[in-house]
Specification:
By secondary structure, the chain is mostly helical. It is about 45% helix and about 10% strand. The protein contains 17 helices and eleven strands. The strands form five sheets. The chain has a three-stranded antiparallel β-sheet, covered by helices on one side. A two-stranded parallel ribbon has the order 1-2. Strands 3-4 form a two-stranded antiparallel sheet. Strand 3 and strand 4 form a beta hairpin. Helix 8 packs parallel to helix 9 and helix 11 runs antiparallel to helix 12.
């Protein structure tokens, strides 16, 4: 990445945020790619781990908990897994609705989603209302989406897995009691937790919303999961709660609509800056220059009984070590009261210092005071779908063109065309003519 930036004369100072999924190759706090990039740049970057990947992981664990299995890439086993793989399910019967105050998405949001995501949204609304159809106001007709074909199952496509589970639940009266109970528990989690958070991410997709989505996931799971389910789900959330790191929580706080919360967020930043300034002062006084420390981005230990996202992680204050007195210009020593350092507990049961989010570390004291009156604005997404689309586009161009120059031209021209014609051209306009029309 750095070699590419230097080759195309991209200013490395522009790098503020780095995003991707939570695989250890990226997220490792000792040798992960993100960590290595920060070490090479000699400064920290704002992390943005994809929440759309994170919310899928508890569903995967719960699916395995209820007897599902992965027999081969793209195939599922176990009683529930074999049913999900089938394309010949019984007709939808009368099913019990699972009321969960499921959010409704606007047409504008739905148009930006994939067909698989929209189909699952319709199934979730159906399960929430108890009706296997939707009324399309725009077209003034009933949408019987249960007749639509569901996409193939894959361990990389959890949206279709969730849709197929809901489809099994809607016809579960045709199966034995074990399948009925299993499909109901999985459907409850999908509608009340998984896709509910997924839909909220689609509605509020900014990086400043990330910590709130993690809290919502905890809260929804706490409300609907049974005790044995909570152990499985909470363990998965804890393992992958990168966006619950104090840096993400502080960003959410200074962007909150509540002025009191914003003031608390600004106060935390000021406290952290005070302890960092004291460390620099001691360094100057001692004459010993310490190498700049690049913080390790570690998942915090979560408080699953918290009442809000601001109390989601466990904090404590630690005394900062320093001399008891400092000399003045006239040679008189006066007492020195060091500031306290704010620490947070990691999932490793160790404590690490809270750091200022890199995205706002350059803000002046005056800027922080303005945040108390006006929420911090940030348009950076909390998911990496755009990155994945770009990776697919780059991969395609490398297969079609030989030189790096033509590959780059193809990527840029395709991206520009997609942006210009998005929503203006439909595949329906390019349907092949039938033989009788030729």
């Amino acid at each position: 990445m750095l070699e590419y930036a230097k080759k195309w004369q991209i200013d490395l100072g522009m790098f503020k945020v780095i995003g991707g999924d939570q695989t250890s190759v990226n997220s490792g706090h000792n040798g992960g790619a993100f960590r290595e990039l920060e070490v090479m740049l000699k400064r920290t970057l704002q992390r943005s781990f994809c929440l759309l990947h994170q919310v899928e992981l508890p569903l995967r664990k719960l699916f395995l908990f209820y007897g599902g299995s992965f027999t081969a890439p793209g195939t599922f086993g176990g009683p529930i897994g074999e049913l999900i793989m089938s394309d010949n399910l019984p007709k939808v019967t009368k099913f019990k609705k699972i009321s969960c105050d499921f959010p409704r998405l606007s047409e504008e949001v739905l148009e930006k989603m994939s067909n698989d995501s929209v189909l699952m949204y319709k199934y979730c609304v159906a399960v929430d209302t108890g009706k296997p159809y939707l009324f399309n106001k725009a077209k003034n007709k009933i949408d019987r989406f249960v007749n639509n074909k569901i996409g193939p199952c894959s361990t990389a496509r959890w949206i279709t897995l969730g849709t197929r589970i809901l489809r099994v639940y809607m016809s579960s009266e045709s199966y034995n009691s074990h399948i009925q109970e299993t499909s109901e528990r999985l459907a409850t989690f999908i509608v009340s937790v998984y896709y509910k958070v997924f839909a909220n991410i689609k509605r509020k997709h900014r990086l400043t919303d990330a910590a709130i989505h993690i809290y919502d996931q905890i809260k929804f799971a706490r409300d609907v999961c049974q005790p044995e389910e909570k152990k499985v789900v909470f363990q998965s959330i804890q393992q992958n709660a990168y966006m619950a790191n104090p840096e993400s929580v502080i960003l959410a706080m200074i962007a909150d609509k509540d002025k009191n919360v914003r003031e608390r967020g600004v106060s935390i930043i000021q406290t952290v800056r005070a302890s960092e300034a004291f460390d620099k002062y001691i360094e100057v006084q001692s004459g010993v220059k310490r190498p700049k420390r690049i913080r390790k981005f570690i998942v915090p230990k979560l408080n699953f009984n918290c009442k809000g996202y601001t109390n989601m992680i466990i904090n404590k204050f630690e005394e900062v070590k320093g001399p008891g007195t400092i000399p003045t210009s006239d040679g008189v020593s006066v007492p020195l009261k060091p500031p306290k350092r704010l620490m947070f507990m990691t999932k490793l049961d160790t404590y690490e210092p809270v750091t200022v989010p890199p995205l706002v570390e350059d803000l002046s004291p005056e800027d922080l005071e303005r945040i108390k009156q006006h929420p911090f604005q940030c348009d950076i997404p909390c998911h990496s779908q755009a990155v994945e689309h770009t990776v697919a586009l780059v991969t395609k161009s490398t297969k079609q063109y030989r030189t790096e120059k033509t590959q780059l031209a193809a990527v840029l021209s395709t991206a520009a065309a997609r942006k210009e014609f998005k929503g203006k051209i439909s595949h329906k306009r390019f349907k092949l003519a039938k033989d009788k029309d030729v």
